[in-house]
Amino acid sequence: MRIKISHTKIKNLIELNSEPFSDERGFFFNIYRENDELFRKIWSCRKILQVNISKTKLKGVIRGLHFQNPPYVEAKLIQCIKGKVWDVAVDLRIGSDTFGHWHSVELSEDKYNSIFIPEGFAHGFQVLESNSELLYLHSQNWVKESESGIRFDDPSLNIKWPLKPKSISSRDLSLPYLKNL
Which of 32, 72, 101, 136 is catalytic? Predict the structure, then answer.
């Protein structure tokens, strides 16, 4: 199995493209291996403290843009295991040359790709196929009192969502704009 790393224009935000082992039975590939040199470079000395799966039923739904405040900032490795999503990461690292910049990548079960989002980023996605599912590896546990986010339609970010937004949660609609954080 081979993995290709694609560096984005935002430092330390990385897309991984896997080439699975396939035969007449199906396929097999790794999303993470602690002892692999490539994964060690990306994940470094972080631990995996939480693993989540999300399912979104309707095409067009946007979830996010979410993050956790210090001291619970987290890195994430995200893989689409069913369907297709348009995944977005926003750089919120104070002092970063790309603060407030965003990067998107289409994640799908057919592409076998994933995205590594380091600490200091907000994350969200829009569902491009109904009943899409994402697998998340987190370097930190979820702490309700630390959760935060920014609005998906923040004019200072000017994110070009591919579909008309549908079914935004009341929580996400109540998130502040970046300038108000």
Answer: 136
* Catalytic-residue membership of 32: no
**Residue 101 designated active-site:** no
- State which residues form the domain around 138: 2-180
Prediction pTM value: 0.92
CA distance 130 to 155: 27
Tokens of 144: 């309700």
The CATH code of the domain that includes 99 is 2.60.120.10
Backbone angles phi, psi at 143, to 5 degrees: -130, 110
Chain centre to alpha carbon of residue 107: 9
Sequential pLDDT tens for the chain (181 residues): 577 888 999 999 999 887 777 788 887 767 776 667 777 788 888 899 999 999 999 999 999 999 999 999 999 999 999 999 999 999 999 999 999 999 999 999 999 899 999 999 999 999 999 999 999 999 999 999 999 999 999 999 999 999 999 899 999 999 999 999 8
3-state secondary structure of 157: coil
Task: Specify the residue for token string 């994640």.
Answer: 107
Say how many domains are in the chain: 1
Q: Which of 66, 72, 123, 138 is catalytic?
A: 66
Return the amino acid letter for 71. P
Q: Tell me the residue length of the chain.
A: 181
Question: What are the beta bridge partners of residue 26?
Answer: 23
